[in-house]
Design brief:
It contains eight helices and ten strands. By secondary structure, it is of the alpha/beta class. It is an enzyme of class 2 (transferase).
Length: 272
């Protein structure tokens, strides 16, 4: 599967997406439209070999997804995206697929290819590569938050507005004090009530977004009603969201964010 556009010279970069979300196909339908402004790339959907994907059609998963070893058998990946996962309430050492994910992340990082983590994927990547701890919250951070850009240099930060909306749905986040003490990672954007939204390595090769820029407009309201029905503890109405008429105010940020990251992947691939 790819987003190739005919008539463009050169080989498009190969980007792998490790999809850890509970409903794999649903997540594909959220993420791909947000990549619509990105330049062409060859897409490889990556699966965790130990995961059953029992909420999806197994025949479709088998046809669409490959293990990391299969995806890189003929050529390495030029970039890697790690999605969110419904495990943010667990300590990292209790996440059963952590070792397999670590092998992928370390391999791509050793090659010098860019890595992007989203929501839990941001925290997981930060932990695996830089030992960054996370804070687990008693109450869920959910809602749409006005977010401040802290630095304007770099291939992604330079494409973002000074202030933008970001959307969050998580029970954990970066330990901001530990992140600020790091000599390898910096915070790019933060929001009152949501903490660090975007962090990156100083060499720009690793990008971590703790929000869900891929969400569609009514998703936060739907999640809130779902959590209330399931009597999930620590759930509050999403900040800044009209539950009856929710608006998506983060789409421009999402499109610019993903397009600039894919451009970084393509530029680094072309330079090798």
């Amino acid at each position: 599967m790819s987003t190739l556009i005919s008539g463009l010279p050169g080989r498009p970069p190969r980007i792998g997406i490790v999809n850890l979300m509970p409903h794999a196909e649903q997540y594909e339908n959220w993420l791909m439209p947000q990549l619509s402004l990105a330049q062409p790339f060859e897409l490889q959907w990556i699966r965790i070999s130990s995961r059953r994907y029992h909420l999806d059609d197994p025949d479709r998963i088998a046809a669409t997804y490959r293990t990391y070893e299969e995806a890189t058998a003929d050529a390495p990946l030029d970039g890697l995206i790690v999605s969110g996962a419904a495990v943010e309430h667990l300590p990292f050492e209790e996440v059963r697929f952590m070792d397999e994910l670590n092998d992928m992340v370390q391999d791509v990082h050793a090659q010098g290819s860019p890595i992007l983590g989203l929501c839990w994927g941001a925290m997981g990547v930060g932990h695996l590569l830089y030992g960054l701890p996370k804070d687990i919250y008693s109450a869920k951070i959910s809602g749409m938050y006005e977010t401040e850009l802290l630095a304007q240099d770099g291939p992604v930060a330079s494409a973002l507005d000074d202030r933008f909306w970001s959307t969050h749905s998580r029970f954990a986040g970066f330990d901001d004090k530990a992140l600020d003490a790091s000599t390898t990672v910096r915070a790019l954007a933060r929001a009152d009530g949501a903490g660090t939204v975007i962090a990156e390595s100083y060499d720009h090769s690793v990008l971590m977004h703790t929000g869900h820029p891929e969400y569609y407009g009514s998703r936060l309201a739907e999640e809130y009603h779902r959590d209330v029905d399931q009597q999930v503890a620590g759930v509050r109405a999403p900040v800044g969201v009209d539950l009856d008429q929710p608006l998506r105010l983060w789409r421009s940020h999402s499109l610019a964010f993903f397009a600039s990251w894919v451009r970084l992947v393509a530029d680094q691939s072309a330079a090798r």
